[in-house]
Amino acid sequence: MKFNGVDYYLIDELFSEEEKLIRNTIREFVEDNVIPVIEKHYREGTFPMQIVPKLAELGVFGATFPAKYGCAELNNVAYGLIMQELERGDSGVRSFASVQSALVMYPILTFGSEEQKNHWLPKIAKGEKIGCFGLTEPDYGSNPAGMITRAEKVDAGYILNGAKMWITNGTIADVAVVWAKLNGIVNGFLVEKDFKGFSAPEMKGKHSLRASITSELVFDNVFVPESHFLPNTSGLKSPLMCLNQARYGIAWGVIGSMMVAYTQALGYAKSRIQFSKPIAAYQITQTKLVHMLTEITKSQLLVLQLGRLKDEGKLKHTQVSLAKRNNCEVALEICRIAREILGANGILDEYPIMRHMANLESVKTYEGTHEMHTLIIGEDITGFSAFE
Ligand code: TGC
Ligand code: FAD
């Protein structure tokens, strides 16, 4: 059956024809190419690599970036809608696209030399090259300023030592955007998969985001040539700027998971008979459904305004934090309520709810935990930093 989304407030009327066309194209793609295969990949802990060339063809990678680098040059609302539709398939699919665009192409575009941009961006846009982003370390997650990974200047380049952890796409990446301290200042390096001393073993045993590859990155005296140093960074602020792009996509993306959970729960509640009536006829179930729909509607309005602000160049990173924090929290709550409405059936993989719920535990944690976003906004409104 065709999926029509969830739109209680006629928010569609606030999108341009082009934005709706892009949203519908990705929706159809996900319907045909992701939903039929994703449970199997989730169970087996694999990523559906066969969709990568198709995503590239649809202009998903670096969708907002300039046409001269082979990108679609869309606006940020269209990009957000793409993320929403991909995450309706699975958070792992949205993660793949987020990392390519926000965490690999964005830093190359923003901090790279013209040679680096011309070399990497068209290839990543075409899906010929896969990237990953290494910021988090085993002992430094929420506090990346403490990172231990170090670069040392040598003739014609740098020597990198250290390790990153929890890196999406690490094992399958051709290039890693790696953040390391050089003379105590955070800098960015492009590390290619076959550089001597570099390895990216896959992390196993996840109960969440199983249809996504997560890896360690290990640097054992890796020589990085000067040509692979990002020349235009300015300390920790630079990786944090990349995070804004990814957090923006997540705030939109998780609405896809909310829509799955709500529509599944609504359909089930109307057809499941207990005590001779559909459970949808009971007031407690209606309260749950109304709460879900209200939270979806609020989240949709939040990201739409966020996108318009981003397109107008008025966006503050603290506003992105507010949307990422809120939307991840309510998406998880909506999945939990949906699971409840489905009773025992809710735990089966015949329904996508538990998969989305489990994924959202990662999504709520990565790109800044719920608590970190609370403190980021808290600092913005009070003037007091609670990080120390
Ligand atoms: P702090 O002193 O606050 O900031 C240093 C400089 O950066 C500026 N800044 C930002 N600029 C742009 N965007 C942001 N979001 C920024 N946040 C801060 C700040 O104004 C300052 O600038 P300046 O000019 O004064 O130097 O730095 P801090 O060390 O106190 O840390 C701040 C904190 C805690 C908010 C930051 O470290 C943080 O956000 N921590 C969370 C870490 C995190 O989100 N990691 C994500 C890793 S990547 C990932 O999870 C990918 S998931 C991929 C997938 O989708 O699969
Ligand atoms: P910690 O920082 O150790 O935090 C543990 C708990 O303490 C959290 O609840 C946190 O909110 C809380 N806490 C920490 N500090 C404070 C404080 N000051 N006040 C109150 N509470 C606090 N990273 C990358 O660089 N690249 C990637 O591609 C990437 N992909 C990921 C994929 C997955 C599936 C996952 C799960 C993570 C990924 N990450 C990635 C890492 C992610 O960004 C970190 O896990 C996240 O930033 C949190 O760090 P941590 O897990 O070390 O938790």
What is the number of independent domains? Answer: 3
Total number of strands: 9
Mean pLDDT: 98
Q: What global shape is seen?
A: globular
- Structural class from helices and strands? alpha+beta
Bound small-molecule species? 3-thiaglutaryl-CoA, flavin-adenine dinucleotide
CATH class of the largest domain: Mainly Alpha
Instruction: Estimate what percentage of residues fall within beta strands.
Output: 5-15%
Instruction: Enumerate the spans where pLDDT stays under 50 for 5 or more consecutive residues.
Output: none
The CATH architecture of the largest domain can be named as Up-down Bundle
SSE arrangement, N to C: HHHHHHEEEEEEEHEEHHHH
Q: What summary fits the major beta sheet?
A: 7 strands, mixed
Q: In percent, how helical is the residue content?
A: 40-55%
Radius of gyration: 21 Å
- Total helices: the number is 11
Output the CATH topology of the largest domain: Butyryl-CoA Dehydrogenase, subunit A, domain 3
Q: Let me know the CATH homologous superfamily of the largest domain.
A: Butyryl-CoA Dehydrogenase, subunit A, domain 3
Q: Give the termini distance in whole angstroms.
A: 52 Å
